[in-house]
């Protein structure tokens, strides 16, 4: 386990630096919201399609509208975080989330629900983008990796809680309304919690409020810590605005290609068809609605457990090992799932195979592309360009999340379940080939070494590369 991850857990358990621990928990509710609303719709969909008379297109729109809203939220979040602060942006996202969750629960027809989910998506996309940024800017460097990883853990925890809520309410009248409406509770917790937290030091420096920034850093680092060097670094970075030309320049282009490929392939292998449609897939094996929702809980537990495994081992074994092994596991599981739906004998004599395939798939993803994508895009870009570059990758990730999720039922209708899963498997093989050839190991390596592996021109990249910080080798990743 990384010293950073150990440090955060140690500080949380011992009660040291309660300010940072409390901050990480509250801000990470933004990740929990993301997980809850991407997971809760899987169970609600089985019931609302009958109550609202939703067609296959409308069911896809109910799922996809949140993702489309999240694309807009991720784009909007970058501007709002700079204009009105990370803190206020998260507060507004929480308020919008509460209103949209209640609207979703009270929707009288499919299109009302679709609109409510779109607005909900704006809040989810905004919070999921700003939360890691806010946490990273306020957390001491020695435990930053642990706190940012904690945000990812909150995402998968939100998915698991959503599955448990689905299971708890499966036999209740108006069950899907309760499933969707209970999402307002973490939204309230986020909005109220953000009122208790300070502004980000970096935002305060951008607004020329240096004394307030120093006060916040002293609270986060300890009154006895020397924060002069960190303040100087914040002032230097905020004075160097990255341009679009920097983002698409030759020095950054190879890194951007890798970042975008990780973002896109993470979705093209079909992970969110499992998250959003797992009960629908399991019901197609002959399970009842209640049974399918119950089996989905195993998928949620697996997701959390193997995300923890990845957080514990990524810094020991490296990113590439998990990325390649996890992608192989996803491909094999998708091929097996396709065979299950193609061969009647398997459906009659091995009805457990579909659930096992989904569990192996989600375990492979949780150890591979799930955490590795978010971790690597925080490591491969120079500091000055990291914000815009990560924003581009995040928007691409949400956009392809929408594209895959919105077309799943239509694809099943066009080529059947076996063909659909084999298409995702084929895309997984392409992803695996790209990862093998183009994605370097980033663990413990300087940015210069990563640039060299990617084929970047060191001269062109020099202009956007960070300077030494706290004795760390220039370009070395912060997490």
Q: What do these coordinates show?
A:
Helices cover 80% and strands 0% of the residues. The protein has 479 residues and is mainly alpha-helical. It folds into two domains: 1-197, MFS general substrate transporter like domains (Growth Hormone, Chain: A), CATH 1.20.1250; 243-479, Growth Hormone, Chain: A (Up-down Bundle), CATH 1.20.1250.20. Helix 3 packs antiparallel against helix 9, helix 3 runs parallel beside helix 15 and helix 7 runs antiparallel to helix 16 (289-317). The longest helix has 56 residues, at 383-438. The radius of gyration is 22 Å and the shape is globular.
Brief descriptors of the model:
479 residues, mainly alpha, Growth Hormone, Chain: A, globular, disordered N terminus, disordered C terminus
Tally of helical runs: 23
Question: Helicity level, as a percent range?
Answer: over 70%
Low-confidence stretches are 1-6, 466-479
Question: Radius of gyration over alpha carbons?
Answer: 22 Å
CATH-defined superfamily of the largest domain? MFS general substrate transporter like domains
Beta-strand proportion: under 5%
**Largest β sheet strand count, sense and barrel closure:** none
Give me the CATH architecture of the largest domain, please: Up-down Bundle
Decide which structural class fits the backbone.
Answer: mainly alpha
CATH class of the largest domain: Mainly Alpha
Termini separation: 13 Å
Shape: globular
Mean pLDDT across the residues is 84
Q: What is the number of strand segments? A: 0
CATH topology of the largest domain: Growth Hormone, Chain: A
